[in-house]
Amino acid sequence: MKKLMLAVAALCLVFACSGEREYISYRGHSMGMSAKAMVDSLLAEVQNLAVDTDKSGETSTVLVDTMARNFSITVYQQNDTITDILENYSASYNDSTSNLWQSLHDQFEKEFGWPNMGKHGDLHKEAFFKNDKGTILLVLLNTYSPTVSVRYSTSMTE
Question: E strand or H helix at 75, and its extent?
């Protein structure tokens, strides 16, 4: 009888754990980890990143590239739970941002499938990728200061 009760308890535990939500990956890390652990991991793994204490606060931590390559990562959180991660890249000319946008688009398309394209012009492109783990919004703005932004979100909506 004891063995049967243990087997039933183990089976219930397996079913309870299998219902746990999976999260999209950011640079090889699950966005289900704590915001502090994500920031610590990024600081340890990505060279030349530092916390911008002037822009960081209770709900977000901003990591900037100290080599002035115009790259930043913002980790948004609520009670140490990651809600979004925003990457921003800026460049001095439009071709570099267009090439970056296209390579990221192709990479996300392989993982998520064809995106919902909100805008698709030469100066402004948006691609929204979604699966059961989260969403990614990829934006290109080729205007006076060309930028590419990538927003990784644990939210399931746009």
Answer: strand 71-78
Write out pLDDT tens, residues 8-61.
333 333 334 445 778 999 989 999 999 999 999 999 998 899 999 999 999 999
In this prediction the pTM is 0.82
Residue 143: in which H helix or E strand, if any?
none
Ordered alpha helix ranges (H), 19-157 = 35-45, 94-112
Side-chain-side CA neighbours of 154 within 13 Å: the count stands at 19
The token pair at 35 is 């915001």
Query: What tokens does 28 get?
Result: 């090889």
Is residue 42 a contact partner of residue 87, using CB atoms and an 8 Å limit? Answer: no
Question: Rounded CA gap, 103 and 138, in Å?
Answer: 11
Could you read off the pLDDT of 117-139 as tens digits, one per residue? 988 888 899 999 998 899 999 99
Query: Three-state DSSP class for 49?
Result: strand
